[in-house]
Amino acid sequence: MELYPYKSTNGFMEPVALQNHLVAIHFVKDIIYRRVVFFEAITPTQVINLGALGAGITSNRTNVTNLDCYDQEFGQFRWYCLDNAQIRVFTPRGVAKGDLKTLQAVIPPNIGAINPDLSLTELYVWQDNRPAIEAINGGGVALAAVRMVAMGFRYRTEELGNPVTYEEARVIAQLKQEQNYASKQPAELLTIAIQQNRISCTHVWASGMGAGR
Amino acid sequence: MGNALLDGVQVTGPVTNLAVAGIAAAAAVYTLGANWIGTKSLKIKKIMYRNNAGGQTYLHIGTGAGATFVDLIDPIVILNNMSDTLEEDEIVQREAFATITAYPEALVALGSVDVQIEVAEIG
Lengths: 213, 123
What we know:
The complex is a heterodimer of chains A (213) and B (123). Chain A has three helices and nine strands. Chain A is mainly beta and 213 residues long. Chain A has one domain (22-205). In chain A, a hairpin with a 2-residue loop joins strand 1 and strand 2 (30-49). Chain B is an all-beta fold and 123 residues long. Chain B has one domain (4-122): Sandwich (Jelly Rolls), CATH 2.60.120. Helix content of chain B is 0%, strand content 46%. Chain B has no helices and eleven strands. Chain B has strands spanning 9-12, 16-18, 27-30, 41-52, 57-63, 70-71, 76-78, 83-86, 95-96, 100-104, 112-122. In chain B, strands 1, 2, 4, 8, 9 and 11 form a six-stranded antiparallel β-sheet that branches. In chain B, strands 3, 5, 6, 7 and 10 form a five-stranded antiparallel β-sheet that branches. The relative contact order of chain B is 0.39. The chains are: A mainly beta (213), B mainly beta (123). Chains A and B meet through strand 2 and helix 1 of A and loops of B.
């Protein structure tokens, strides 16, 4: 089964991990190793309305607090704008998403026609580290609203502990036979196994990446 | 290429009889409801109208009434004793964020206009 970020499908989207899967959540400079214990779908829902926006005006950068997740949880979201505005995304607020050397990519209002499964809009939110957005009304007509609709999955996770799957138990047993790791606990060994690519783990990036990081 | 994400849900309003002329008498022809979550808007997809011996006049369709009335689309000429339909291709897809109202500019005595619209509810 291939599950990976930004996966493009004929339908809308697939979860990036399933129950008991290992995930590595990258947030700015941190990497948080967790196990998924529960996940469920978040159906398309308006998560923010930036309100009226005049012609040629860029909105203030606004936190999308409705995309906050509970403690221990991360979200996988795709989204689009219902109104004729271009959207810039920042996660967290100070770090641009889709940042190239000379420009920052935007979500255009016709994203649904160009990229129907919205795979290119996918982003991840670790706990309450919500994204922020700016909208620009590049049209000649004032907009009465700038509404964003998001959908995806939320994942409850737990810290790594004892192995759950046969494969994890096998890899840990193998590591324990190596001199450097003989005294380490299962959680540490699982982390080491992930870091050394000895066991499968899905990496997700819950933030942008600024220049020089 | 279409954009199904923006299509909305197509819904039909009731047949509304407009028996009083003038902007102050603008009456609701499609009422904008509230979502549990989010903001809804409307785009008119179809207009059916019948002039019940009201004399030739203009039918205004917009939002608000009286001083707050704003035309959504250009007024439509409606001929005495005639009915007609405008389809989506013939209607400017202007978005309304309020209940859609309509009024005939003038009516002869005992005349009225029936209007029914179909909208896409977006959001």
